[in-house]
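F.,

This is the one I mentioned.
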C-alpha cells in the first residue's frame, strides 16, 4: 500500500470511530479577551454541543516582576476571588450564547505560572475528548511567532484539538 492509501484508511477508521463513539467531553479554553470570546461563540454553528459535557476553562497567568528592591506578583491572592467571579460570569454568558445548559457546563478559573501545563493537566484529569481554543490571528512578523499556548496544546494535548482563528 502506498502513503495515499494509508491516509485514506486512517481517515475511514477515524471517521468510523467518531461515529460509533461521539465525543462527549469538551473543554473550551477561553481567554477573557473580547476577540477570543467572539471567536469561540462561532462554535454554535460549527459544533453540536447538545449531548456534551462542556468545561469552560480560563487560566490567569501569575506573573512575577523583579525590581531593584523587591519582586512584585500579579495578580495578588487578594484579587483572585474578584477575578474568578468576573471570569465565570463571562464563561456563563458564553455558555448561554452557545446554548449550553448550566447543568451540562462546568466553569473553572485557575491561577498558575504556566497556563499551558495547567490546561494539559486539566484535560488529563477530566479525560477530555476535545479541547477548543482560539488563536489571536496575528499576521506579519508577529504571526511568525504563533501563540505559545496553542502551539503547546498542538504538541502535548492528550486529546483532539480544534483551533479557531478570528474572522478577518
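My design for it:
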Amino acid at each position: 500500500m502506498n502513503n495515499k492509501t494509508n491516509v485514506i484508511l486512517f481517515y475511514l477508521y477515524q471517521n468510523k470511530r467518531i461515529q460509533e463513539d461521539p465525543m462527549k467531553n469538551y473543554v473550551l479554553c477561553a481567554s477573557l479577551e473580547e476577540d477570543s470570546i467572539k471567536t469561540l461563540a462561532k462554535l454554535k454553528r460549527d459544533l453540536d454541543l447538545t449531548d456534551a459535557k462542556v468545561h469552560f476553562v480560563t487560566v490567569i497567568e501569575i506573573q512575577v516582576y523583579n525590581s531593584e528592591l523587591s519582586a512584585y506578583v500579579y495578580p495578588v491572592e487578594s484579587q483572585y476571588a474578584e477575578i474568578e467571579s468576573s471570569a465565570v460570569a463571562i464563561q456563563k454568558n458564553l455558555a448561554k450564547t452557545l446554548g449550553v445548559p448550566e447543568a451540562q457546563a462546568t466553569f473553572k478559573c485557575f491561577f498558575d505560572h504556566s497556563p499551558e501545563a495547567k490546561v494539559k493537566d486539566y484535560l488529563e484529569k477530566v479525560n477530555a475528548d476535545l479541547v477548543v481554543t482560539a488563536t489571536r490571528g496575528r499576521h506579519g512578523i508577529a504571526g511568525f511567532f504563533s501563540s505559545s499556548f496553542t502551539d503547546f496544546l498542538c504538541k502535548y494535548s492528550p486529546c483532539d484539538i480544534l483551533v479557531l482563528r478570528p474572522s478577518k
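Residues 80-98 form the longest helix (19 residues).

Talk soon.
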